[in-house]
Each structure stands twice: as C-alpha cells, then as structure tokens.
Design goal:
247 residues; alpha/beta; 2-enoyl-CoA Hydratase, Chain A, domain 1; 2 domains; five-stranded parallel β-sheet; 10 strands; 33% helix
Length: 247
C-alpha cells in the first residue's frame, strides 16, 4: 500500500515551523492529491517559529498549510495523524483540521505522552491562566481528547500506534475509492430499521414453515375513520413479514 508520509524533526528547534517547513508540507499534500494517496503524519512541533529574525512570515506560512489541509480534505483527501509527543500552536490546529471537522475521514491516534495544546503550561502560568501539571494533562488523551471524542485511537507507544493505523486501513481504506466499502453479511432490513420489511401476500414468514414465530393482530382504520383490514404481523428472531386479510 502506498501513502505519503510527513515526519517532524524534534532535534531542530523542537520541530518549530518556518516557511521552508510549511512549503514542504504543502508539497507533500499536493503529491498525495495528485497520486490519490492518503497522508500519514507523525508530528512533534513547538508551533510557528518566533525568533529575532523571523516571526509574522512564519505565521503566514502556517495559514497556507491550514488552507491546504481544508481544500485537500474537502475534495476527499485523507490525513491520518499519529501524535506521540507535544504538539503546540499551529501544529495542533493542523491536527484538528485534518481529523476533527465533520467532513474529514482521517484518524487521530495518540499515545500516553502525546498532547495537543495551543500554548504550553509555563506560558499559561506566566500569563495568569489556569494550567495543569503538564501539557499531557492540558491536552492529552486521557483527560481531554479521549473523553471528548476528538481522538479515535489510543496506543501504548509509537510502534503500537503504527500497528493501530495499519489495522484501521483494513476496515476503512480501499485503493482508488474515496468512500469506505459497505459491510457485508447482514440482510439490509436487519441492518436498518428504516428500510421496508419483506411483505408476503399469504402472511407466511419468508424463513419457512419450520420457523417459530408469534402472530399479533392489530386493527387498522381507513383515512375516513372507518374500520379497515386487520394487519397480521408474524415474526421470529430474524424475520418479520406482514400480510393483510379481511377483518
């Protein structure tokens, strides 16, 4: 199976995001769209780079990535996230845009050390805000992302997260298709209560004469209020049929 992989490098400025990094991410998404492939993203990032020689241009670059994520997913593209470390600021926004909006189909897998926060604990405390003991408590799976339903999977470590995503592909990905395949093995009327039941003129259950079924008779009325034909419903554990006979 082919897919496009995006990796962060936390050894360089804790994965800070400047214009060059954002250009590479946009290029990776462009490649995935051109080839019709899903994107796998394993990020660790402290957010947009803010330095003495750069700042606002990096924020503009992260906005370009946000726009590209939205246009890619709106056209049916899929971005899967494996978060196994700290994600701050713009990276957390990207994670949410790729997996949490109603039109997206990407999976978000988190590990015990993963966190998605807009600002870190130290910055919250310095500004007088309410913080917690660490970033995991602020935006980790156990307290926030899991109970809120924002992350779909929880894995013990990075290797387990990769295996979890591979298992997700088994059920949710078919090469060349933009929609998941329907489950097979169940009759349509057994899968949905809104679909019409099988009607048999004789009133017999379609499962055969040996089926143990119960019969109930209910009175029906016409639109004018006059008594109408009685309806006999016969059902067993798996089958339901309805026949009509004169009252």
């Amino acid at each position: 199976m082919r897919r496009v992989l995006i990796l962060s490098d936390p050894t360089r400025g804790m994965g800070a995001l400047g214009a060059p990094e954002c250009d590479r991410i946009v290029a990776a998404i462009d490649l995935a769209e051109r080839l019709g492939l899903p994107v796998e993203w394993i990020p660790i990032s402290s957010g947009a780079r803010i330095a003495m020689d750069s700042g606002t241009e990096n924020l503009d670059a992260t906005a370009r990535v946000a726009r590209r994520i939205i246009t890619f997913t709106e056209r049916g593209g899929v971005i899967h996230l494996i978060v196994y470390g700290v994600n701050v600021g713009a990276q957390s926004y990207w994670d949410a845009l790729a997996t949490m909006i109603s039109h997206t189909r990407g999976a978000l897998v988190m590990t015990p050390d993963a966190s998605m926060v807009l600002t870190g604990r130290a910055a919250l405390e310095a500004s007088g805000g309410v913080a917690a003991e660490d970033e995991v408590a602020i935006g980790g799976f156990e307290r926030i992302m899991g109970p809120n339903g924002e992350a779909q999977y929880y894995a013990g470590d990075l290797a387990a997260a990769v295996r979890t995503l591979a298992e997700h592909y088994r059920y949710a990905y078919v090469v060349g298709r933009t929609q998941p395949s329907m489950a097979t093995g169940l009759r349509p009327w057994a899968r949905s209560s809104t679909m019409p039941r099988t009607r048999v003129a004789s009133g017999r259950s379609p499962c055969g004469p040996s089926c143990r079924r119960s019969s109930t008779r209910t009175a029906a009325t016409s639109s004018a209020g006059a008594p109408g034909p009685a309806r006999r419903r016969r059902s067993c554990g798996m089958h339901t049929s309805a026949g009509f006979r004169s009252a």
